[in-house]
Amino acid sequence: MILLWSTAALATGFILDLIFGDPPAIPHIIRFVGKIVSRLEKLFLKVGKSPGVQFCSGLCFTCVVILISTGIPFALLYFAYGIHPVAGFLVESFLCYQLIAVKDMRVESMRVYDRLKADDLDGARWAVSRIVGRDTDRLDRAGITRAAVETVAENTGDGVASPLFYLMLGGAALGCFFKSVNTMDSMVGYKNEKYLYFGRAAAKLDDILNFLPSRLCALVMIFATALFRFDAKNALRIWRRDSRNHASPNSAQTEAVCAGALGVRLAGPAYYEGALEEKLYIGDDTRPIEDDDIIRANRLLYGTAILLFILAMGVRICCMAVIFTVMNN
Predict the structure, then answer these.
(1) Are 301 and 152 in contact (CB under 8 A)?
(2) Phi, psi (degrees; rounded to nearest 5) at 267
(3) pTM, rounded to two decimals
(4) Alpha-carbon gap, residue 144 to 136, rounded angstroms
(5) What b/e sequence results for 280-295 when a residue is b if at least 16 CB atoms lie within 10 Å of its CB, and e otherwise?
(6) How far apart, in whole angstroms, are the C-alpha atoms of residue 222 and residue 236?
(7) CA distance 177 to 62
(8) For every one of its 329 residues, what pLDDT tens digit does the chain have, with 9 covering 90 and above?
(9) Rounded to an integer, what is the distance from CA 178 to the centroid of its chain?
(10) Cα 91 from Cα 97, distance rounded (Å)
(11) Contact 266/227 with Cβ under 8 angstroms?
C-alpha cells in the first residue's frame, strides 16, 4: 500500500531534518525552485507595465512555476513507486526531508545568539540579516534579538506547520506544491513598485494555503507553551488579541503566541530598504527582551514541531485504519 510507504517517508523525512538540517553541500529542492522563479520572473516581467497586464503576467508566471515545481517531483514519485515501493519510499523520504525546516531555523537563529553572547553586534546583525527581510544595520541588541525571535516564531508556521499539513494531506507532491507557492511569495510577494501587481497572485495564494495551518499551529503552540511551563494563559490572551496585528493574515498567529508565552513585545516599526515601515506591536512589554529568548523561542519551535508531527502521523494512521477496514469488509 503506497499510503503506508508514504507515511513512513513522512516520518523518515521529519527525523532526517531534526538530525541533519539543511547542509549546504546537498542539492536542495527549494534552491531549485528559487532558480526557476528568478529566471521566469525576468521573462514574465517584460510582458508589460500596466497593472492589469502585470497581474495577468504574474498569474501565468505563478501557474508555470507551480506546474514545473510540482510536476517534476510528482513524475519522480510516480516512476519511483512504479519501479518498487522501496524506491518510491526513498525518493519521497528525501523530498519530505527537504520540505521541512526545523533544525535549519534553529541553526540560523542560534548563530545570532552566539554572536550576541560574544558581544559581537556587527556579527549578530549579519547573522540575523540571513533570516529576516528588514534592514539590520541600525538594529541594537534588543532589536536583533526581537528580529530573531519573530523569525523563529513565524517560521514555526510557514516553515514547519504548513509543510507538515500538506505532506500529511497529499504526500511529497502536495508538499512541493505548497513550497513552490511559499517560495514565490518570499521572492515576488512584495508590495513595492516592482511586484505590487505581478506578485499578487502568488502572495494571495500563499495566504490562502497558510490560513488553516497557521491557526492550527498557533493552537498547538499554545499547548506546547503549557508543556514547557511558559505562560500559556497569556499566550492564549495575546493570540486572541494580537493575531491580526500584521499585514499578512497568517504571520502574527504564531508570533502572538510566542510573544504571550515569553511575556515580551514583538514586531513594531522597522526599516525596509531604508524606509521606516509602521507596524503594529504584538504582545505586551512586560519585561525587556533578552538574548535567552532566542533559546526559548527555539524550544517552542521544537515542541510545536514534534506535536504537529505526532498529530500528522495520527491522522495518517487513522486514514490507513479506515481504508484497511473498508477493504476487508
Answers:
(1) yes
(2) 65, -145
(3) 0.93
(4) 8
(5) eebbbeeeebebebbe
(6) 7
(7) 11
(8) 788 999 999 999 999 999 999 888 888 889 999 999 999 998 898 887 888 889 999 999 999 999 999 999 999 999 999 999 999 999 999 999 999 999 999 999 999 999 999 999 999 999 999 999 888 888 999 999 999 999 999 999 999 999 999 999 999 999 999 999 999 998 888 888 888 889 899 999 999 999 999 999 999 999 999 999 999 999 999 999 999 998 888 989 999 999 999 999 998 888 887 788 888 999 999 999 999 999 999 999 999 999 999 999 999 999 888 888 888 87
(9) 10
(10) 10
(11) no
Collapsed DSSP state (helix, strand, coil) of residue 165: helix
Q: Which of 91, 136, 79, 76 shows the shortest CA–CA distance to 112?
A: 136
278: helix, strand or coil: coil
DSSP result, 13-81? HHHHHHHH---TTS--HHHHHHHHHHHHHHHHHTS--SHHHHHHHHHHHHHHHHHHHHHHHHHHHHHHH
Cell of 267: 514586531
8 Å CB contact between 89 and 9: yes
C-alpha cell at 163: 509543510
3-state secondary structure of 279: coil
CB 159 within 8 A of CB 308: no
